[in-house]
Write a structure and sequence with these properties.
The protein has 341 residues and is α+β, with helices and mostly antiparallel strands. The protein folds into three domains: 66 residues, 2-Layer Sandwich (Uridine Diphospho-n-acetylenolpyruvylglucosamine Reductase, domain 2), CATH 3.30.43; 113 residues, Uridine Diphospho-n-acetylenolpyruvylglucosamine Reductase, domain 3 (2-Layer Sandwich), CATH 3.30.465; 105 residues, UDP-N-acetylenolpyruvoylglucosamine reductase, C-terminal domain (Uridine Diphospho-n-acetylenolpyruvylglucosamine Reductase, domain 1). Helix content is 25%, strand content 28%. The chain contains nine helices and 20 strands. A five-stranded antiparallel sheet has the order 6-7-12-10-11. The two termini are 23 Å apart.
Amino acid sequence: MPQSQKSNVSLKPYNTFGIDVKTSQFAEADSIESLRNILLQTDISKTPLLVLGGGSNILLMADFPGLVILNQIKGIEVVSENDKTLIVKAGGGERWHQFVLWAVEHNLGGIENLSLIPGSVGAAPIQNIGAYGVELKDSFHSLEALNISTGVVQTFTKEECKFGYRNSVFKNELKGKYIITSVMFELKKNPVFNTSYGAIQSELEKNGITELSVKAISDAVIAIRRSKLPDPAEIGNAGSFFKNPEIEKSQFDVIHEKHHDIVHYPGADGKIKVAAGWMIEQCGWKGFRDGDAGCHAKQALVLVNYGKATGEQLYNLALKISHSVQDKFGVTIEPEVNLIG
């Protein structure tokens, strides 16, 4: 085994659920060159590969029988600038929230609504992360990704990434074929703020904020998230476990007839986006606990590991939850997290 790789390594410190499984091989890459070297030293055609950033969007259900690469490529730099915007490049191994704080510190708008989302910059486009009415694609410029088979770094435009709701080309036809090494964002010097979604406006009013700023909105989002969501450092979790499903208006009207208080938002192509957390709560799962696997007491959309839950136990709980939502509302909810193993 190459010197840069370790064998039989626990992945517990590298996933926010805190699942204690092991990987056969483990390596860290802090540059494109080191990433290439790791791949050159590995028979990729015969070795399963898993790339981790913050480990915040995965559920590990078994020991991993291959190579785990931890993306540690760091750095934030301004690439270009004009009167209205800056193009900023961030390494794929940067923590997402640290990058948001960098933008806030420089009074650059566009990603402040995405404050405190766990994970890495490199993983963010794969999922097209979003919160409070904003998605990553709204500020996305382009990204660079290393082709695992060839070692060549390619640039992908917004169109080539095929962003959708919690979706991108890297979750579909290019899944497992590239490692994102850096992402470029177009950040605004004089942004138009989005305060209409969720409780941002009421949080600003509660704090007596009358003049909007990047920092004020970021602080409000951080306060809201901390009040509703568990800290992975204290309770293992991966944030929202399920996507909010988008359903046809005709189906929504049938549900709305029985449940007038259903939480919903406009979706794409005339569809209605329904709050999965609300439906899960209506099915009685909020605060549920079976051993160390549970559903968070404040936010039903979040599954939690209270200590020694296995990935399989959490997955089985997720299945029971999704089946109950299907039975009660006739709506299919799908995991937002990636299931590994």
